[in-house]
Amino acid sequence: MGGLLALYAFDDLWNLSNHIYYGLTALDHRGSEKYVACTIGNGKVKCYKGSKERISKEITTPLAIAATCSNEDMDIYLGTYSTNDLEFVMIGDRYSKIIDIVGEKVASRLSSSNTSIANKVLTAFKEVLDEFKGRDIPSFLAITNRGEILAYRSSKGLTPLTLGGYGFDLALISSESRAIDILGGEVRKWLRPNELLYLSKYAVENVRVNSNGVEHLCAFELLYMARHDSIVDGVSVYEFRKFLGRTLARHLDADVDIVVGVPETAIPYAVGLAQAINKPFEIGFVGTGRHMRSALRIDPLQKLIAIHLKMNPVVHVLEGKKVALVDDSMVTGATMKTVSQILRYRVGVKELHVVIASPPLVKSCPYRLMPIDIKSLLAANLDTENAVKYLEVDSLTWIKPEVMSEVARSFNIRLCGKCFGVDFVG
Amino acid sequence: MKVLLVGSGGREHAIALMISRSTYDPNLYVVSDHNNPGLLRVAKSTGGKLYRAKTTNPQEVLKVAEEVSPDVIVIGPEEPQFTGVPDLLRDKGFSVFGASSRCAEIERSKVFARTLMWKYSIPGRLYFRAFSSLEEARRFVEYAGDVVVKPARQVGGKGVKVLRENQAYLLEEYRDVKKDFVVKLFKEMAKYVDIDAKVLIEQRVEGVEYTAMTVTDGSYVLALPLVQDHPHVYEYDIGPETGGMGSISGPGWVLPFIEVDEFKRTIEIIDNIVKALQTEVKDRYVGALAGQMMLTALWGPTVIEFYSRFGDPEISNMVPVITSDFLEMIERTIDGRLAGYKLEIRDDVAVVVKAVAPAGYPLNKKVAANHPINVDEGRIKELGCTLLYASVEELGDGTLRTHGSRAFEIVCYDESHEKASKKAELAISYIKSLDSWPLIHRSDIGSIELLKQRHHLAMRIRRTYKARARRGLLGTSIVWVPGKGIFFDPFASPVMTR
After folding, report:
1. pLDDT digits (tens, 9 = 90+) for B266-275
2. pLDDT category, A74, cuts 50, 70, 90?
3. Do the Cβ atoms of B288 and B309 come closer than 8 Å?
4. What is the C-alpha to C-alpha distance for residues A243 and A399, in angstroms, rounded to an integer?
5. A332 band by pLDDT with thresholds 50, 70 and 90
6. pLDDT the model gives residue B441
7. Domain spans of chain A?
8. Is the pLDDT of residue A84 over 80?
9. Up-side HSE of residue B404: CA atoms within 13 Å toward CB?
10. What is the mean pLDDT of residues B421-440?
């Protein structure tokens, strides 16, 4: 997965270099392996790839689109298309050939359309996207050499997109609201699934593309991907996680002394659980160095390095205690196995009860949002008895899909649940 | 009664409609810069006439006045006030509703207005500095921090740079933009030789904006219901500042997110200003005076600026709600008998006004100008809405052509803002561009989502200003520079003046 960022200054006085840098920094948790930024100059669209530092220095213009992604090869999708007088670039927030097909079709439509129509670009995009109704199209951003920016939220609404404003000067679009906060802006609108937003100096328009498919946010957006300080589709990520954590109390049988969360995503779940069972929430681990998101790592060694660096235990909190250890999800179990080894052999906990704030992951993602291989999914391959033995824990608790549905409904949101073996949650 | 109205836009059309309903059975004459079809029609239907003249030229307006010989003259816009149109007309013995040039200084010079508030300790004032030297302004803005840079003179409500500066890591960007903006502004202001200070730099505040319109005869201040304008050009409060893309009001006297006590304090501020202003300029204030207000954490009700006339589009919100005689109010204002007038309103309706402008407005009025438009006014009337003509002209052949600014205002009312807004959307669908040039308007004005946002913001602001009020901190912003001491004027601290 990746993060998208678009900035549009209505006043040419702006140089958005630092805005790109800090905006992308606010989206680093969605991937920090590769960055791309595109802007316009001399009537051409120009794209830059490389480090955040490098690409942000290149953007000295009042408008740009940019993306961050978690994996070199699969996440980012960048395509350049041109017709007679018009050139545009599209960046998707995950890899999909369909973006290329959309781009080609828009280009061919534009080459045959009446050039005098002011909003021809928006019209072309809408008409082409309408043809794909019901299909899964990733969220994308586009920039044209005429100084227009388009933002499209994925047809099924799997990934979020938010519109923000900064005074009379800037329009900001981001995968997550925190980038808008970090850039001093204010959230103005959660784009709806299939919503296409058009920004230019003389018009800001939004249209909804035809849709007949199911619309639901990827469950992992709220469970893992977004940061606690973000608000996704009007739902506070922190509140959602804490509330889900509270419901874990219904599943947990064991009597524990303390509750700890796997940093950093699982902290609000642990807070919720601790509040519900009236046991102390403790900080069990402290990270070292740059925050790395272990679940987004594909290479096993890189993943292990990330886990080891973020999981230095606070020994005196944990030693001799009956510990409830909370995490947002369990994919391969590698993180949990590593942590249990640390807690058992280096710390010496009395009991270790693992509580997972999501239902068992049993299917791979049909939309390729998460790098999940069905063969390596712990819940799809080991029964609970074997899982408990392998992980060397005293108990393993998952949340039931129906309980998570209940929580999602109370937040008035519907989530995709395909990887949990259900169509949707909520 | 013969009434002569000076002005050419949507505000004047709204005023004309309200005057025409008077039991005085007025003949309405208009002096307008162009053939505004709405004004033309009201004039004709009341047995009056539309004269074309340069409304900022006192002699040209006087000529019309002498020909018409009206009982009452109403000055709509501010620019004729600045150029002395009401002064000359009064000199010649006419009865005029509209601030004199000396009183209109409250709008024309932002420095004058701010200074007046400080001199008379009027609540809702902001710290500021005025600059007549580009170099000094540039140097000041470099370290000024969280400030607003604006033209020192009224220039059609534009050219303000408001940069929320709460991110130290973006400081360089903000500084560069502000410095470049100061240079740009000085260049633009050079043509205004009627004012010494060119640029004003003041404390930035944030909160919920609203407009408090009043009418005063110099001793009594009569409040109209509060209105909220929407200055951003695009949906969801995105994009550059405009003269206003629409406004909401009602039901009743206050807005849903403003408390009655805040309304009262706002009117007290305007009352104080009328007294201070008359003392200062030694002239009686006769006409409309509006406060562009903001509910801020610093003060609660805070003055952003004053208008020496009715707000545009804010006055349009009054068209469906004022039920008492508007012309009687004007007459009593001129005669100094306003205290005996009772302004009656329909307090059971919410009003939504939406402006329709050609694309290009407000950044490039050139591309926005000269587009042909067709309006099906009959259908708009069927909806119970009122169409106001603004920056649009009727040519000889009956077609309408845009001038580059807001072309129309649609005024609709219903039991809720949302319903009124939906009506306005339908009404706007009857306005069509004939050359496929896009027309823009804001569909979100009056929506539940936007009202919720305003409400939430007002609650947040109110919590803070009330907490500050409890500690006696209203209006203060204290700066402590270690080793140098405490500064009550943040602009006077050594950090600012180095």
Report:
1. 999 999 999 9
2. very low
3. yes
4. 12
5. confident
6. 97
7. 2-214, 219-425
8. no
9. 7
10. 95
**DSSP H or E run through A32:** none
Fold (topology level) of B2-97: Rossmann fold (3.40.50)
Predicted ipTM? 0.91
Any idea where the domains of chain B sit in the sequence? 2-97, 127-203, 207-448
Edge-to-edge, what's the strand order for the sheet holding B161-162?
B128-131, B199-203, B147-151, B161-162
Write the pLDDT tens digit of every residue in A283-325.
999 988 776 666 666 677 877 888 888 889 999 999 999 999 9
Mean pLDDT of B327-333: 98
Closest CA to A136 of A220, A193, A91, A176: A193
- Quick one: pLDDT at residue A301? 82
B359 residue type, one letter: A
- In degrees and rounded to multiples of 5, residue B93 shows phi and psi of 95, 10
CATH code, residues B207-448: 3.30.470.20
How distant is the Cα of A124 from the closest Cα of chain B, in angstroms?
Answer: 16
Residues of B in contact with A7 (CB under 8 A): none
Retrieve residue B421's tokens: 């807004």
Both structure tokens of A8: 């549009």
Angle at the Cα of A124 from the Cα atoms of B445 and B424, rounded to 5 degrees? 20
Position A364, amino acid:
S
Inter-chain touch B231–A168, beta carbons under 8 Å: yes
Report the candidate in A249, A195, A262 with the shortest Cα–Cα distance to residue A223: A262
Question: For residue B399, what pLDDT is reported?
Answer: 85
On the CB side of B484, CA atoms within 13 Å amount to 12
Mean model confidence pLDDT for chain A: 91
Tens of pLDDT, residues B331-375: 999 999 999 999 999 999 999 999 999 999 999 999 999 999 999
| Shortest Cα–Cα distance, A417 to chain B (Å) | 29
- pLDDT of the residue at A296: 64
B436–A118 CB contact, under 8 Å: yes
Mean of the per-residue pLDDT values of chain B? 94
Query: Are A118 and B359 within 8 A, CB to CB?
Result: yes
**Which of B163, B167, B169 lies nearest to residue A167, judging by beta carbons?**
B163
CATH number of this structure's domain A219-425, picked from the four choices 3.40.50.2020, 3.40.630.30, 2.120.10.30, 3.30.470.20: 3.40.50.2020
Q: Residue holding tokens 């402290």?
A: A286
Q: What angle do CA A363, A364, A366 make, to 5 degrees?
A: 115
8 Å CB contact between A391 and A340: yes
Contact A188 B181 (CB under 8 A): no
Mutation target to probe the A interface, by most A beta carbons within 10 A, among B238, B356, B460 is B238
What are the C-alpha distances in Å from B366 to residues A176, B103, B199? 37, 33, 26
Closest CA to B301 of B260, B335, B339, B329: B260
Nearest to A119 among B237, B360, B438 (CB): B438
* pLDDT value of position A80: 79
Rounded to two decimals, what is the model's pTM?
0.93
What integer is the mean pLDDT of A344-373?
Answer: 91
Quote the minimal CA–CA distance from B377 to chain A in Å. Answer: 26
Contact at CB, B239 and A117, closer than 8 angstroms = no
Window from A161-170, B79-88, B390-399 with minimum mean pLDDT: B390-399
Give the DSSP per-residue string, B43-82. Answer: HHHTT--EEE--TT-HHHHHHHHHHH--SEEEE-SSHHHH
Task: Determine the average pLDDT of the residues in B165-194.
Answer: 89
For residues A146 and B313, give the distance between their C-alpha atoms in angstroms, rounded to a whole number. Answer: 33
Looking at the domain that runs over B127-203, which CATH code has it been given? 3.30.1490.20
Q: Supply the CATH classification number for the domain A2-214.
A: 3.60.20.10
pLDDT at A38: 95
Neighbouring residues of B364: CB distance < 8 A, sequence distance ≥ 6: A201, A202
